[in-house]
Automatic annotation (TrEMBL):
Keywords: Cytoplasm, Golgi apparatus, Membrane, Phosphoprotein, Repeat, Secreted, Signal
Organism: Heliornis fulica (sungrebe)
Name assigned to this protein: NUCB2 protein
InterPro entries: NUCB1_N, Nucleobindin
UniProt KW Phosphoprotein keyword: yes
Protein localization: Cytoplasm; Golgi apparatus; Membrane; Secreted
Xref: Pfam families: NUCB1_N (PF25434)
């Protein structure tokens, strides 16, 4: 009773219902480990976030954070490719264009599957915003 939120305590957020919810949560968790980015995130208003202004701050995060984000993106691209393969296997149609299927996934830049760039953060934010309309 009467206990408040403790600094650094993990708060469980409800599932967003987005098919990339786990990726979204992991990106946020990693970004919040960078003190500068966390401060910018806490002071940014919703319009700054949606406009992509916050995404430009990604260039200022530590190398360790960028390396971890790159790793997360590669894992997400691999997961999406696995989903596409499963879909292809289920329909047994050999004429499917992988790049066309990847374009369905608008929460990351599929043309650059190896590194997490400001464009990826911007696309993730825009996809989340569109998912809640």
């Amino acid at each position: 009773k009467g206990e408040g939120h403790v600094e650094g305590e993990k708060v469980e957020n409800p599932d967003t219902g987005l098919y990339y919810d786990e990726y979204l949560r992991q990106v946020i968790d990693v970004l919040e480990t960078d003190k500068h980015f966390r401060e910018k995130l806490q002071t940014a208003d919703i319009e700054e976030i949606k406009s992509g202004k916050l995404s430009r701050e990604l260039d200022l995060v530590s190398h360790h954070v960028r390396t971890r984000l790159d790793e997360l993106k590669r894992q997400e691209v691999a997961r999406l490719r696995m989903l596409i393969k499963a879909k292809m296997d289920s329909v047994q149609d050999t004429g499917i264009d992988h790049q066309a299927l990847l374009k369905q996934f608008e929460h990351l830049n599929h043309q650059n599957p190896d590194t997490f760039e400001p464009k990826d953060l911007d696309m993730l934010i825009k996809a989340v915003s569109a998912g809640y309309k």
